[in-house]
């Protein structure tokens, strides 16, 4: 087991767990001893992801499930399945969300915005509502929402993503207040630029267009965005932050947003 926060005996459920940040978070939880259920809409993709996760672990420690977070019946059914798997649920990670194409707000199609709200913001709420009856009341129960740096920093042409992410920040705070009576914590991580599969592919394509390497493209973006650490995050660094919030080391933390963005966002107070 990797060094870090001990999640032995805990059961976690990660939406959007077949790739990207969801996969990295699932890996971090698994490495720290949790049993992890991962969900995605694509059955073959989620089963393949489970195979990659269990390459260094026992297969019975990972449960791949198919779920559509825009469908309440699907969400309710899969939460019951996950709870029945181990007879408990300690950690919910709300991660599933769309990748929106860059667009100015005055040009974006309102249907695109509506779909993004339905998948990410309302999707997070649907999953939380379904999970709350199952989450442990003994102190281990907690929810970690994945937001995004656009909620805190103005980045050109990311307004559509930003307003959805800002909604998730509000959801996190209000849900933390309401869930506290049940001894359940609710927090969020807000990742910045991260070397996920999607971004690696995108920066590779950008590099070909610009006559640069993908690494040069990412370095230029880090400079342009003013990332204090002057680099992109490794997915494992985002996973570690989520694992911290899910652990007992964060037992007195709720209603907070942990910005894991290398200093991209720059709050003064």
Automatic annotation (TrEMBL):
UniProt entry keywords in alphabetical sequence: Oxidoreductase
Pfam families cross-referenced by the UniProt entry: adh_short_C2 (PF13561)
InterPro entries: NAD(P)-bd_dom_sf, SDR_fam
Keyword Oxidoreductase listed: yes
Residue ranges the record marks as coiled coil: none
Keyword tRNA-binding listed: no
Stated family: Belongs to the short-chain dehydrogenases/reductases (SDR) family.
Name the UniProt record assigns to this protein: SDR family oxidoreductase
Organism: Streptomyces chiangmaiensis
